[in-house]
Amino acid sequence: MFESTELNARNWRIQQGMRLLFLGMTLLLVLPVIIILGVLIYKGSPALSWAFLTENPTNGMTAGGIFPALMGTIALVLVALIASIPVGVAAAIYLSEYAPDNWLTRLINLAIINLAGVPSIVHALFGLGAFVLFFGFGTSILAASLTLAIMTLPVVIVSTRESLQAVPQSFREACWNMGATRWQTIVRVVLPNAVSGILTGIILEVSRTAGETAPIMFTGAAFFLPFLPESVFDQTMALSLHLFVVATQVPNVPESLPYGVALVLIGMVLIMNSASIGLRMVLRNRKKW
Amino acid sequence: MADAPKPPKCAIQTRGLNLWYGDFQALFDVDFDVPAGRVTGLIGPSGCGKSTLLRSVNRIVERLGYVRTTGTIDVLGNDIFGANVELLQVRKQIGMVFQRPNPLPLSIRDNVLFGLRTHGSSTGTGADHKSKPTKAEEAQIVEQSLRTVLLWDKVKDRLGEPAIRLSLEEQQKLCIARLLPVKPRVLLMDEPCSALDPDGTAAVEELIWSLKGDYTILIVTHNMAQARRATEECAFMLHGRLVEHTETAKMFVSPKNQSTADYIEGRYG
Q1: Three-class secondary structure assignment of chain B
Q2: By the number of CB atoms within 10 A of the CB, which of A24, A125, B120, B231 ranks highest?
Q3: Residues in domain ABC transmembrane type-1 (chain A) (predicted)?
Q4: What 3-state class would DSSP assign to A242?
């Protein structure tokens, strides 16, 4: 009565085959990460040293370190964050907590989706036109960072809005029914419970910002500038552009140099991402629900 | 409606209350008198409008945005749709307890003090509106509120713990305790026991019984036995209309209306 039939056996084989196929596809996805990291570490690690991180490039960028580029990237990311976090978080709070469901809100959401879809080179041209020329910031850290900020705003808004909406609606209802205003509800209940998600989103944004090349090429990153910028109105070197330059524009570069630059860049991003995961775990454990 | 009791004072009085969710009319000409200081039950089958009526009383139903209301609701003699009514005061004076206990993700102590901190002070008006309660006052308020809901002895040693670690019954009691520091006059309860086990239900019913007199309590319930046990007056709703409202003892023994009788006997619903 309960014996297996030929059809059962066939269905089981198909099911197993599909499982293996999908498992294979998933492993395929991990492969590039392993190869990229492996090659970078293998070829780039000879170039790494304390001096590499703390010295200026020399001999027409074929020797020396990457200090100005490293500092430049950090400066670009910091200024971009200062510009994008207040705007992005405020917009997300409005969209999640205040906005009624009407045509204006839908238009704003559409705009955010489209902003996220704009190619980075188009952002670069926009930054050149708007910040460098129209606002007269010149090619500077400020112009480049503002361009990066606009490019990463959708990421901040979407991730912040998602973490706000992950806070159970019943908490808000409890507050409203006790006569708390929306603002009191946001400050006392919603934000404290969404902060881990918001921070994670911001750190992911940092890692994206650090690697961007096109938006800063026309707006503030310099080809070669062996000293540190003094203000946000100066140009700066940046790791991503420096990598492009030593890999393609400068002759007679030792092979390990571009790989070393790439390793530093990706190391920065990985450290930020791990920090974000760690922070999220710490904050999650402190959650009271 | 004919033999609705004529108590000395009405806490809630609705006249010709109609309510629409968009095009759907949920309440039809509801005239409802809830006597002050008593426990009044609202019974009726699902979708009959009892929760809607309950949520109209603190105007939380308007949060949905597509709600339209006509008619009047007076709470303690004041029209809650009046021109100079502050919604936040309405919600402060009229506490609401939900089906599913919804303690805030804060400590037990902070849950009790939340309303107080939201509204400034226990009296809420006048000169001391801005004065912050001292630590000692806060501790006293916490103890008093938790004693009122019969929870103090269980939680007095762990007031700093997250409220979510309490059992459902204790959470529901905490949700009631949370309302008390701002001194509401009316407590609305939307099936306050339906997420609880029989022991929890008994404990919360006992609590509700102990609160009557000090507070006007309006309870929505699906549970006929609970309505019979835990309320003094009962109102039966059907299809958005208030069919019958009388003393609980009377309603369950000799309902006036045939549909009330059929519902109480479990012929539908």
Answers
A1: CCCCCCCCCEEEEEEEEEEEECCEEEEEEEEEEEECCCEEEEECCCCCCHHHHHHHHCCHHHHHCCEEEEEEEEECCEECCCCCCCHHHHHHHEEEECCCCCCCCCEHHHHHHHHHHHHCCCCCCCHHHCCCCCHHHHHHHHHHHHHHCCCHHHHCCCCCCEHHHCCHHHHHHHHHHCCHHHCCCEEEEECCCCCCCHHHHHHHHHHHHHHECCEEEEEECCCHHHHHHHCCEEEEEECCEEEEEEEHHHHHHCCCCHHHHHHHCCCCC
A2: B231
A3: 70-276
A4: helix
CATH of domain A70-239: 1.10.3720.10
Q: From the candidates A97, A105, A171, A178, which should be mutated to test the interface with B, based on the most B CB atoms within 10 A?
A: A178
Side chain identity at residue B71, one-letter code: G
**Residue A112, phi then psi, degrees to nearest 5:** -65, -45
pTM of the model: 0.80
Q: Where in chain A are the domains? A: 70-239
Could you tell me the strand order of the sheet in which B67-75 lies?
B24-35, B10-21, B67-75, B78-79
Task: Nearest by CB to A178, from B87, B105, B115: name it.
Answer: B115
ipTM of the complex: 0.78
Is A171 close to B119, i.e. CB distance below 8 A?
no
**Which tens digit of pLDDT belongs to each residue from A137-191?**
888 999 999 999 999 999 899 999 999 999 998 899 888 888 888 899 999 899 9
Domains of chain B from N-terminus onward: 36-53+92-120+135-265 (3.40.50.300)
Q: Which burial class, exposed, middle or buried, applies to A250 when counting CB atoms under 10 A from its CB (0-12, 13-18, 19+)? A: middle
